[in-house]
Amino acid sequence: MYIYILIAVLAALAAAAGIYAFRYEPFRFRLSQVDINLRQLGKKSNGPKGQPYLHILHLSDFHLRKNSKGKRMFAFVQSLARYEPDLIFITGDLVDQDQNIAYLAEMLKPLKAKCGKFAVLGVHDYYNKKVTEFVKNMIRRKKDYRRENDIARLKQALQSVGVTVLQNQRAAIRCRDADIKGIDIVGIDDPILEKAHVPAALDQEGPRERSLSYYRQKYPEYFRFKQRDFHLLEEDARLLLALVHTPDSHTIMDLAGQGADIIFSGHTHGGQVRLPLVGALLTGCRLSPRFASGLFYFKKFVLYISRGLGEGRYSQFRFLSAPQASMIRVYKK
C-alpha cells in the first residue's frame, strides 16, 4: 500500500517539476542589477560610490523564435527601451535560423545607447543545428555543422538597427569625460568553433591558442579570487571591456593576459538546470560549473556571465535558472 502512495507522490513531484521547468521558468524574465567597482592605482577612496561611471545593458542568448516564448521575449526586450544606458552588449546565440533574423532586428530596433551597441556571435548564429547533431554534441562537442546560417545577412540586419558586430575586432570609444583615458571594446569570435583569436582582435601577432600545458599551468594564477570586491586599474589606463559568447577558460586567460578589465559572456544559461545546495551541473564549455553565472572578481580581471534570455529549440526548459537581462552599473572610485 505504502509503496503505491510513494510512487504516486514521486510521480506528482516529477510532473510538477516538469511543468515548472518547461512552462513557467523559461518565461520568468527579469532585469538584474549588477554593480562592478573599479579603482585607479594611487587614487584611493573610502567615500560613497556616487554616480556610476557607466551603465551597460547586457543581453544574451535570445535563441529567438516566433513561438509563445519568443513573443514574450520580444515584448520584454522592447520594454527595456525605456532605459538609455551608455552601452548595450549582446553576447551571442541571437537566432537559431535565418528565418528569424528580421524578427530579431525588429525586436532590437527600439533599444538606444548613448555610446554604442555591440554584439558578438555564438555557435547557434553560425549554424542551424539538426536534432541529431544536437544529441551527438552532448556526447562529443562538435566544431562545425552541416547547415550554415547566413552570417552576412545577420550582421547586416544588426547593423541596420545600430548594432556593431565584432569578430575578433576592437572598437575605441570616448564615452564621457573622466580620469579614464577612454574605453576599448573588444569582441572575440566563438571559441567553441575555434574562431577566437585574441591577438588579432587587439592588433597583435600571436597564435589563436597556446599549448594545453600552458593553460593548465596558468589556470591557478588567472582564476584566483580577489579578496576585495573591486578591480584595480593602472593610473592612466584605458578601460578594456571584452565580449565573448562562450566563457571558455582558455580564451578568458588570453584576454586577461592582454589586460582585459571586465569580460562579458553568455552561453551557459546559468547551467540551465541548477539544484538546491549544488548549483549548476554543467556549463557546456571549458569552465567550472561554479562560474556558470554571475559576477566574479579575480586577481587580474572581472568576469560577468549572464544566464541569458532563451534556450535552444531542442532544450526549451530551465530549472532554478531564470532568464535574465542585466543592467550593469560600473563605479569608479
Please report the number of helical segments. Answer: 9
- Rg over CA atoms, rounded to whole Å, is 20 Å
How far apart the termini lie comes to 66 Å
Order of helices and strands: HEEHEHEHHHEEEHHEEHEEEEEE
Strand order of the largest sheet: 5-4-3-2-15-1-8
Number of discrete domains? 1
Fraction of residues in helix: 25-40%
CATH fold naming: Purple Acid Phosphatase, chain A, domain 2
Q: Helices and strands: which structural class?
A: alpha/beta
**Biggest sheet record:** 7 strands, mixed
Mean pLDDT: 91
Which class in CATH terms? Alpha Beta
Q: So what's the overall shape?
A: globular
Structural notes for this entry:
The structure is a single chain. This protein has 333 residues and is an alpha/beta fold. The protein has a single domain (2-332), classed as Purple Acid Phosphatase, chain A, domain 2, CATH 3.60.21. It has helices at residues 2-24, 68-79, 101-108, 123-126, 131-139, 151-160, 198-201, 212-222, 249-257, and strands at 30-40, 54-59, 87-91, 116-120, 163-165, 169-173, 183-188, 231-233, 239-244, 262-265, 274-275, 279-280, 294-297, 302-305, 324-332. The longest helix is centred in the N-terminal third of the chain and has 23 residues, at 2-24. It starts with a helix and ends with a strand.
